[in-house]
Amino acid sequence: MNARRLHKWAATARLVLLLLAAAAAAAAAAAGRREVVTSPHGAVAADDGRCSRIGRDALRDGGNAVDAAVAASLCLGVVSPASSGVGGGAFMLVRLADGTALAYDSRETAPLAASQILAADKKRKKRRYAGQKASTEESLVDETE
């Protein structure tokens, strides 16, 4: 290795080490700063601020935490349909005022008449993962009732 290549390699190595050290320092500083938010009336957090406000409004208008979660979830189905929506599923853990804990599993399911044969291309014997045969039955709307 000639001197010029060695010098470039050493400079690159120093730069990488410097960037790693800076990233580690930033992560350590961020871990030390945790913002604590308190509210006597509850809080709602969603991927989109508009949906958080809709959930908050559900609480303000006399709804409970489940009402706020459903409102925020339905809003996300409108503003972010690729990641959330009425055609999908959901999980929910609820603790009632009396301490009873409930778990809801509302994952989407395949239609009852579906089978692996339906999902196969009969000519090529390949499975197809697109189109109406690959769809699922929504569960989120059923669960919100």
TrEMBL record:
GO cellular component, one term: plasma membrane
SUPFAM superfamilies linked to this entry: N-terminal nucleophile aminohydrolases (Ntn hydrolases)
Keyword terms, alphabetized: Signal
Domain of life: Eukaryota
GO aspect biological process, one term: glutathione catabolic process
Gene Ontology MF terms in the entry: glutathione hydrolase activity
Signal peptide: 1-29
Keyword Nucleus: no
Residues that hold L-glutamate according to the record: 107
Keyword Signal in annotation: yes
Protein known as: Uncharacterized protein
Organism encoding this protein: Oryza sativa subsp. indica (Rice)
